[in-house]
Amino acid sequence: MPRRVPDLSVYLVTDRLLSRGRALVDVVLSAVRGGATVVQLREKEGSARETLELGRALLHRLRPLGVPLIVNDRVDLALALGADGVHVGQGDLPPEVARRLMGPDALVGLSITGAADLPTLDPAVVDYAGVGPIFPTGSKADATPALGLEELARLRCLLSVPIVAIGGITTANAPAVIAAGADGVSVVSAICSADDCELAASALAKAVREGLARRASPEG
User: Fold this and answer.
1) Which stretch of 27-31, 115-119, 174-178, 215-219 has the lowest confidence by average pLDDT?
2) In this structure, are residues 84 and 62 in contact, taking their beta carbons and an 8 Å threshold?
3) Residue 220 burial by CB count (10 A; 0-12/13-18/19+): exposed, middle or buried?
4) Among 43-52, 113-122, 191-200, where is mean pLDDT lowest?
5) Which sequence positions are flagged as catalytic?
6) What is the dihedral sign for C-alpha 67, 72, 73, 76?
7) Does pLDDT of 1 surpass 50?
8) I want to staple 30 with a disulfide (CB 3.0 to 4.6 A). Which of 95, 131, 197, 205 is the partner?
């Protein structure tokens, strides 16, 4: 039986440094109230134990709400937490190894930064692709060059799994990103750094719906 991929429409990637001193759990819960559908725990600072405790706090609050918690990079932490899945990049554990460790029911996401990465995605192993950066972004220091909307649309045609677009996504450009073929938008600063995280997530959810409507329209 195929694994069920969750609603990817507003995919929040956490960043404590961009959260303006606010508790990350509060930021995440505000975002979920506004419409965030998936949360990825991405912690580049702090110890593994700190991240584990943070993940436990998030999982305790998110699981009753039916919002999946995905762990970035760290399969060991995802397993220790009992998280819903793991997201790996091109320089992390190969997705087939992540799948073997996580088991058949977990979600496994893979970053795709361009057409050259496509051979690394086996749809029998990977549930969804994180494609980007679509636009220039300052929230990831080692980001590759921006792909743009035309390349996003081309990659959509070449990928057989759902895709979530990442990199420089805002409420202003999210409709065009969805219209180009993305199933959802993945954001960091657009929510974590917002004055009102709930309002920011709600605005993004509305922008995604606008993009879906635009894609369904005969006029495109």
Assistant:
1) 215-219
2) no
3) exposed
4) 43-52
5) 42, 111, 140
6) negative
7) no
8) 197
